[in-house]
Amino acid sequence: MQGQKKISFSSQEFIDIFHYPGELGVKYSNRQSEFRLWAPTASNVLLVTYPTGNDSKGTKTPMSKGEQGTWYLDVAGDLHGIYYNYLVTVDGMTQEAMDPYAKACGVNGNRGMVVDMQRTDPDGWQDLVRPTLSHFINSIIYELHVRDFTIWSESGVQQKGKFLGMTERGTTVCHSVSTGLDHLSELGITHVQLMPCYDFSTIDECKLDAEYNWGYDPQNYNIPEGSYATDPYHGGIRIREFKEMIMALKEQGIRVVLDVVYNHTYLAAESHLNKIVPGYYYRQDPYGNLTNGSGCGNELASERSMVRKMITDSVVYWANEYKIDGFRFDLMALLDIVTINEIRSALNDVDSSIIVYGEGWIGGHSPLPDNCKALKGNVRQLPGTGVFNDDVRDAVKGHVFFGEQPGFVNGAIGMEESVKCGIVGATDHDQVDYNQVLFSHFPWAAEPAQSINYVEAHDNYTLWDKLLKTNPNDSEEVRMAMHKMSAAIILTSQGIPFLHGGMEFLRSKNGDHNSYKSPDSINQINWMQKCKYKGIFSYYQGLIQLRKTHPAFRMKTTGEIQSNLCFLPMPAGQMLGYVLTKANADPWQKIVVVFNATSTGRLIDLPGNHWIIVVNQKQAGINELGRVMTDKVVVPGRTSLVLVEAESFLGN
Prior knowledge:
This protein is an alpha/beta fold. It is globular, with a radius of gyration of 26 Å.
């Protein structure tokens, strides 16, 4: 816009003149490649091509000014494997920047690469289909970090810490206990949520064994991370190996969710985005300072049309090219409601079974008004999108930021209504007093699938470490009972359950509550724990089997929950119970679920007098563990019970 009047980036006038709705980046064919960059404030742009992704000199070619703020250049020939950047001049300053739409890169993501994506496809990729998912509510999500999952020296995996490590079958520990991919199949989850796998900044890909990071520091949004590849120098290899991992998971019937971080970038003033269009991509205060709603130094201005387009284009690209089945948005409330709804709509055009959910909160003050944020409290304005239920998280185990503070399972009084909020999937239910719920004093979910129920994730203490913090004087056996009750609450509640990788065998990080850059010794999955705590693993496995087999635990609508779930009177605090009656066409026509978090056995009344126990303190699943022949049962201390009306159990 040199020589023109300055137009506010946020104005309708700017959108009318400079919003470009077409394809950006490189459009490849074996005859020519078409380059197009959106840089409306630039006075000049050059394409720089390189023979390698690092340590080589480039060739500069002027680009032409195109429509709506774009610059373009068509280059003849087959450019697959050629690396490139842009030299962008704004206000007399020329800076080299990588293409925000680049699909491949060299080592450390400093140069884009022209790529024929078909050459990166593993054999059979084009025929790969998404595992069946008839409704979001049928999801059971399992979060893992690619490196953590296989890096342990005794994991049995050859390609430790790599995308390819996630493809290996037959890996074991203790001779016969499955690890890695086989473990996921054995556990029975439906979705794996991969912690950030796009190209992130804080790992030097030339020094892979020396550094660790979770990856919440975006550099290139559309390219897999090189530290998880066997060769980070040649751009096509990380793509192929990432696809091989996706393929291996899907062939086991497991859908794949990407953890995406579109709320900020690792660099701000020096980022590729800011070099290309200074000041456009980031929110600022009235004095021109970057705002910090992410807690990481900057936040993307998703409400601006070309930022919204970049984010939406990126999500759709992952869904199409990599056949990704879901997206978990980090600090989703830093994105505006319109953007999230546009993403949901665009993904519906790809495949309406692609799941979308995120963190319904922010990490600091943001100038985006609250009524525009994709907050948990605004999720009713986000149809088809879910948020994490922190009400049930902190109610079950205690506050995540106050280590010694307990919850329902580990000694706190008065958490019942908040746990009930999780049991009904945060929907409207006349037996839940939302005035007593921890954080949200209203039923924020329009439908149960909007509530992602969890007690443990990569952030904060693992559940096992939290229990060690709150109950240091209790025996391991007592804490294990608390852990199992936490799992039983989450996996029998309405809504979508979310598990953190390794919690099914008491994962510990040695008390590290923020291990984002801690070493492998803290973060790695120690598969010996699965050998040691086989009973815990079997309990989780049984709860998952119960949930997948019986639709009563997966009601689709608020109306169904209101009609078919009734809370039962309990004889004491720190107890909860409810009955599911003819719920969601379940062949088990009456199911009672009871949680006794007290230390002593309690007698409760049952709505009937002949019951089959399928979950108790020791075991969980769909098989008979015992019978109750009266309308009363003693629920032992620190025990979860699931009982089925004998008539419908024995009739199926």
